[in-house]
Design a protein that fits this description.
It is a single chain. With about 350 residues, the chain is an alpha+beta fold. The chain folds into three domains: about 1-65; about 85-195, no CATH class; about 195-345, C8orf32 fold. About 45% of the residues lie in helices and about 15% in strands. It contains twelve helices and ten strands. The chain has helices spanning about 1-20, 20-40, 55-65, 115-120, 120-135, 150-165, 200-215, 220-235, 250-255, 260-275, 305-315, 330, and strands at about 85-90, 140-150, 170-180, 185-190, 240, 255-260, 280-285, 290-295, 300-305, 335. The strands form three sheets. The chain has a four-stranded mixed beta sheet with strand order 1-3-4-2. Helix 7 (about 200-215) crosses helix 8 (about 220-235). It is globular and about 60 Å long. About 40% of the residues are buried.
Amino acid sequence: MRNVYKFLRASILILILVGGTYFIAQEYSAGIENAVNTSAGGQSLTKETITNLGDVLATVEAEIAGGAGSEKTNDTVKSDYQPVQGTGQLVEDSKSQQTDTTPAASYDFPENMYPYRAMLSDTQKEVYDQVYGAALELKESVTLCRQLDQSSIKNVMNAVFNDHPELFWLDTGYSYGYTSKGAVISVMLKYNETAQTLQSARQKFLNAAAKVINGASSLTTDLDKEQYVYKALQNMCVYDENSDMNQSAYSVFINGSSVCAGYSRAFQYIMQQLNIPCYFCTGYANGGYHAWNIVYIDGKYYNVDLSWDDSLGDVSNTYSFAYFNLSDKAISVDHTRRELSVNLPECK
């Protein structure tokens, strides 16, 4: 593929020098554009952004340097997602009669914006809403309104974390109490350091995010907004596996350094605020657990890996769009969905 790109690039330059006509330049620009689109799984990711021949050549160079289609096995791109982990604690069977009968608060979680909740049973959704409300109130211990088995509580907790990047103060670890019969009756939540000064931390978070949201809101199409956010977050953050709270969107907006999970949650949050469906997707990539996004643009779902593109862009000191709006077929070369994420919409 590298040789194909080099041949195409050389052909353009020769034809421009020899022919010098507008017709030839236009025809070959279109040809290269189609070639780049094909290399990204047949998606139209570059059609809207490439407006002149210089952009075509720059995009080809970027694709050669780090485009999707060849599995990454070096340190340029990394996978540092920490799966949500629950630790079970056996409790007395007598406590199995305890349930929280307080009616759960009513929330509006439309399926197109919060897909993980939609994957749950009605009973699990009740617990989901209860856990979400407890996190808002910084409750550490929650007596469940419905008893669940251990597999179900895992799905509920994953769904809450995956749907709600705004809960940046919630730690990805939790514990739960279960009886000798395996019934989970309580959940203990954990919080990071921002919970100590949540009001000020939340204001900082909202202010930083608003700068990106306001900039994107001035644009017309969802694709333009998506591209703006993609670049803005690459400008805002650097990949650092040692960054604080790197599983949260807060690490991107405030600390300016994060890992794949932080990038993905930050991108998800901004797109949600722009009313563009965007999902937190987890799986396996480049030898480790990884997180990226699925976004809905112009009637189609696409895979987006912002953290990998930021890392690739840092190497070449430019913006990378190698992992921008890819089909499942294109991204499956080095990304594999796991857990509940396998149920997210197909990206064709």
